[in-house]
Each structure stands twice: as C-alpha cells, then as structure tokens.
Amino acid sequence: MSCCDLAAAGQLGKAGTMASDCEPALNQAEGRNPTLERYLGALREAKNDSEQFAALLLVTKAVKAGDIDAKTRRRIFDAVGFTFPNRLLTTKEAPDGCPDHVLRALGVALLACFCSDPELAAHPQVLNKIPILSTFLTPRGDPDDAARRSMIDDTYQCLTAVAGTPRGPRHLIAGGTVSALCQAYLGHGYGFDQALALLVGLLAAAETQCWKEAEPDLLAVLRGLSEDFQKAEDASKFELCQLLPLFLPPTTVPPECLRDLQAGLARILGSKLSSWQRNPALKLAARLAHACGSDWIPAGSSGSKFLALLVNLACVEVRLALEEPGSEVKEDVVTACYALMELGIQECTRCEQSLLKEPQKVQLVSIMKEAIAAVIHYLQQVGSEKQKEPFVFASVRILGAWLAEETSSLRKEICQLLPFLVRYAKTLYEEAEEANDLSQQVANLAISPTTPGPSWPGDALRLLLPGWCHLTVEDGPREILIKEGAPSLLCKYFLQHWELTSPGHDTSVLPDSVEIGLQTCCHIFLNLVVTAPGLIKRDACFTSLMNTLMASLPALVQQQGRLLLAANVATLGLLMARLLSTSPALQGTPASRGFFAAAILFLSQSHVARATPGSDQALLALSPDYEGIWADLQELWFLGMQAFTGCVPLLPWLAPAALRSRWPQELLQLLGSVSPTSVKPEMVAAYQGVLVELARANRLCREAMRLQAGEETASHYRMAALEQCLSEP
Highest taxon of the source (predicted)? Predict the structure, then answer.
C-alpha cells in the first residue's frame, strides 16, 4: 500500500475532525448505511496492518466528508480500538517513500475522531497519550506542509476534548501540556492561536497548578502579551485586555510587564471610548490593583495623574450604575470599579510615599464620597432575597473599606444603614459556609474566572470591624449597634475565631487577617468598656468573653511573635475585671490567678535597664520584644497599668499574688538601677499608681517595698504618694 493510500485512509479523521466538527448526522434514512456496516465488519476482522489500512480506506469511501455522527464514530472505535492508533503514534519506521510523520498523523486523526466522544476523551488510553500529543504542537519540518498542519489541528482537537472532561485539565497539566502550549504560542507557528485559547481554558480551570508546573513558560507568554498590548494600535488591544488578567501570576509580576501593562492602559483609558472598550480595561486595572496594589503605577506626575484618572473613572461608573433608577447594573464591571476605589482609599490615607499629592487626595476623597453615597443608596434597596448575592457582598466590602478610614462624612446615611449591616453580617456569620463561597464568587465576578491575588475575605463582619471600631466611639452609632445586637454578635465571632488560635491548631498557617480581626474586636470591646460599662455588666456574652480571656492569656504571653495580640487580651481583660469584680470567676479561682499572673508578666517585661558606655548608671529602655512594636503597644500598656491599678482594691487576693510574683520588688529594683532622668514622667506616674495601690492594699507589700529601698526610690523619682504611703505603719 502506498504512502498516498495511507494519507487517504487518514481522511476518515480529517473529514470529520480537521474542521473541529464531526457533528452532522448521516444523510441516511433511520436505518444504518449497509455499505458502511459491511466495511466496518471488514475493519473488525482485519488480521494485519495492510488489511486494516485497506478497510479504513473502504470506510472512508463509504462516509462522505462531514457525515460522521456520534454513533458512527463509536462503531469505528469499536472496530479499531486503541491498539492500532497507539502503534501509529509510536512507530519509528515508515514504509518506503512515505514521510515519517504520516503514520503519526493518521494516529492523531483517529484519536481526534474518538475524542469527539466525551467518554472516550477521558479514557486512560487517551490520557496516557498527552505527553506524546504535546510534542506534536511544535513539529519539525516544513511549516507549510498540509499533512503537518492537519496533524496539529487534530492534536489541538484531542487536547481540547480532554480539557473539557472533569479531570482533564489536571491530566494535561501533569503531562506537560502547559509548557508545550506556551512554546507553541511563543513560536507563532501554525495553530499558535489555538495554543493561546487552550492555555486560557487551562488557566481558568486550574490556575494554581498551571503556575506551579510551568511558571517560567507562562511568564514568557505574559511578557509577550504585555509587549503586544503596549504596542497595539488596533482593536486587538481590547481583546488583550480580556486575556491578560488570566496570565497574571499568583506571585510577583515581572517589572517589565507592569510597565507595559500600565503604559497600554494609560493610552486606552486616556482616550474617548465606548463602554465595551473601556470596561475590559477597567477590569484589567482592577486585577493589577488586586495583585500588586499600587506598585504597578509609576511614581511622579504621570503616575499620580493615571491613578487619579483610574479612580475618577471607577467612581463615575459606580454612580452611573447605582444611582440611575432602573438601569441595568453590569456587576462585574462595577465590582472591578470597587477594587479601583479601594486602591484610591489606600493611597489617599497613605502618609508616606503616596503617589498622590494633597490637592489630589482632597479631590478624590470628595469624588469617592459621592460614589460611596451611591453604594449606600443601593444597599438600602437590598431585600432579604438578595443578601446572598455576590454583588451585595462586594458592595459591603467597599463600604467597609471606606468606613475603616472615614466615618465623619455621610454620618446620617451610615446610621440609617447600620441595622441592615448588622443583620447582613449576622446572616453570613450564621451561614459561614455560604459566606466563604460568596467570597470566591465575588473574586470571579470582579476580575476573572480565577482567584485574584490575595483571597477576598470570606465573612462580611471582618470587613466591617474597622468601621465599627470607629463608630462605637460615637454615641449615636454606638446606640444603634447595641440596639441591633452587634455586641453579642461580636462576642460570638471573637470566640469562634479565637478557637483557631487555641492549642491544637497550627497558627502558622492562619492568615494574618484572623489575628488582625481578633485585635480589632478587642478594640471595639475596649470602646464599649469605656463608653457603655452597664452593657458589660448585664450582657451574659461578656461573662463568656471574660472566661475565655482568662483561660487564654497565660499561654498567649509565652508565644513568640504574638505580643500585640497578648497586649490586647491582657488590657481588655483587666478593664473588664474592674467591671465584673464581683463575679465568682474572679474571686481567686485558678483561672483568675493565672490570668493576672500572665498580665503581670506582660506589664513587667516591657522595660529593662540598659548600660551605656561612659556612664555609671544604666538607662531605662524598652526590652527587645517590645521595642519594634512599641508604637502600637504603648497605649495598651499604659491602659493596662491603669486597669491593673484599679483592680487591686477590688480584688483582695490580688496584692498578695503580686507580691508572690515579686513584681513590686523587681519594679523598685529596676527604678533604683537606672538614672531617674531616663524615666519619662508618664512612666513614673504609671509605676507609682501600681505601687501605691499594692502598698495600700497589703501590709506585707509595704514591708517588702521598704526592704527594697522603696522610700528612697520614691524620693528620687518624686513619687510623693508612694513616699507617704510607705512612711505610714
């Protein structure tokens, strides 16, 4: 049989698969084609390669181009099976006068025909051909050879069919297809557009796995696409806007890509565009904002103007979508605009190295205020039936970002919306699984079919915590939050999330957001302790909170890197203990003793005596663990000292416990070993407050302080109250 005959046999696959359609049914009556059935029988009974080739030729003649339907394909497969195509794909010796790629081309054509059946596309005998098929995407030889091009088309059809099966993307990635597709695209040979289309599908289905297996190759594609985007002057730049978000890596984007992307976006968004041209550009910009913050925007005048333009366009889009009654909201575009507004909020509140100048910040805050008013207006219209929609979640997110920085403007509108926000947060908290799913839906809605950069937070309450922290300081908003049950909800939320940090859980894998959320909850509770003490005394949820704080602090203060959270817990617990001092749980129980011992540890270890060259006396200095975070810690420390002082007269057992810990003795020893000029007045006042209350509460404490030269130390530091207390019997 000649090489031409073999090529003709390949027509079986080419006729029905080269054009990616084997779908039209036979133009026959309801019965089967008897001639075809006879030839299929011959194919099944073939005893050697020559007979199989001949039978394939006969089948080809009986089936007109485009006439193969699903049932016919299945019967051909039943007759041929996988053994014959396998041999064609792996053979290294072709008949005389026949190019070596023709047999492989016939094998691929048969596989392409079979893969039109989804069941066969997922067959192990197809899946194990993925590495071989991937090598055919960039074949050697004459690029204009029709047979080679046909084989490439059939290869893409096979791989695309596999990608459409449930586990297909995973098998393609493991088989090296991603790298092969990248090389095929970068080579810009025949079928490179099909390579890009298949890459897009794989990234959409399994982004993380794709980048893990082929990061260098995908970055090379990103560089090529970014460069094309920067240079494009025709409509292709709008198509690239839609593709590029999928090719941004989960890690660092190469600087040269960021430059090209920013330059391309600046040229697009600086022009007059229709919505279909502008919207993909806004979504790409939002994706970059999520992945890189503002790092992709150059410093200087051009960068600040570009950022201002982005935020302006985003705010206009939000207002047009949400203010116009009855207008159709393009939720994916508006959610992308939310991401750009969030970038604007971050830059407007950044004090150092901000891209924006003060006049620009003032202008943008005013513009964003109007857009936030539109968001509030939209949320006021949301009924209970829409609360689980991802766009509502995205709208609450941007409002939360605004409230975290600004609560003085739009105060009336915000107060009117607070009941809805509490109910919304409670609904999603009580249905946490759905809330987590919502966060992924928001990611999909806002940017692309893949998760954008850092994960969107999964619960609405955490988005609102910073804003509520500000609002609990103000009488009006605080009363609304209390009336709507926010404190009880916050207690439950805190206790649930605290479990994630308890022994038995690997805290190293927890996102920073968990600890930040716990700290913010503590700040809200601190506000309530100070401004609404009656609530703390009467609401049972705060008793449960106090029990948790007492049980948790002893272990927390021993953990490295968690000092700031320990400070929040200790200070909050001390302040609450003053209000709940009559509670049985605080009457010298093991839990209460453990808590106060841990609180003393936190308060006592903040400062040390540090020797200085050329000086006889040491200086009071921050201990190493406290030094790096003192700016965030000092207010809590001073408040904790004040709260401990207030607890001493309320809890008779506390002064003896403090004496046993040797804190008063060691404190006096520390003050006696350093130069008084190195101790700031506010430190002197804090130390004197604790020492005086301990001395007043317990005779043994007074005696121990005298033995530690307490009177002399008090005189040196002009602690008149302590000096007088120690002079008394």
Answer: Eukaryota
Judge contact between 161 and 115, C-beta under 8 A. yes
Residue 706 phi/psi, 5-degree rounding, is: -65, -40
Give every CB contact of residue 28 below 8 A, 6+ residues apart in sequence: none
**pLDDT reported for residue 681:** 95
Taking the whole predicted model, whether its pTM rises above 0.70 is answered as yes
Beta bridge partners, 619, equal: 610
Residue matched to tokens 């010796």: 93
Structural contact between residues 467 and 404, judged by C-beta atoms closer than 8 angstroms: yes
Residues whose CB is less than 8 angstroms from the CB of residue 45 and which lie 6 or more positions away in sequence, other chains included? none
Residues 6 or more apart from 271 whose CB is under 8 A from it? none
Rounded to 10 degrees, what is the CA torsion of 719, 724, 725, 727?
120
More confident residue, 16 or 562: 562
Q: At what angle do helices 475-483 and 411-430 cross, to 10 degrees?
A: 30
In sequence order, the 6+-apart residues with CB closer than 8 A to the CB of 402 are 345, 368, 372, 467
Distance CA 387, CA 354 (A): 36
Task: Tell me if residue 51 falls in helix, strand or coil.
Answer: helix
If we measure between CA atoms, which residue out of 419, 526, 431 comes closest to residue 482?
A: 419
What distance in Å separates the CA atoms of residue 338 and residue 330, rounded to the nearest whole number?
12
Answer yes or no: are the C-beta atoms of 719 and 691 closer than 8 Å: yes
Q: Which of 362, 230, 245, 244 is nearest to 308 (CA)?
A: 362
Distance CA 55, CA 60 (A): 8
| CA triple 546-547-553, angle to 5 deg | 85
Q: Tell me the one-letter amino acid at 184.
A: A
Structural tokens at position 347: 């830059």
Based on C-alpha coordinates, what's the Rg of the chain? 36
Q: At 31, is the secondary structure helix, strand, or coil?
A: coil
Task: Report how far Cα 6 is from the mean position of its chain's Cα atoms.
Answer: 55
What tens digit of pLDDT does each residue of 442-490 get? 555 544 333 333 333 447 899 999 999 999 999 999 999 999 999 999 9
Q: With DSSP H G I counted as helix, E B as strand and the rest as coil, what are the percentages for the chain, rounded to 5?
A: 70, 0, 25
What is the token pair recorded at 313? 């366009």
* Tens digit of each residue's pLDDT (9 = 90 or more) over 365-411: 999 999 999 999 999 998 888 888 889 999 999 999 999 998 888 99
What CA–CA distance (Å, rounded) separates 373 from 395? Answer: 11
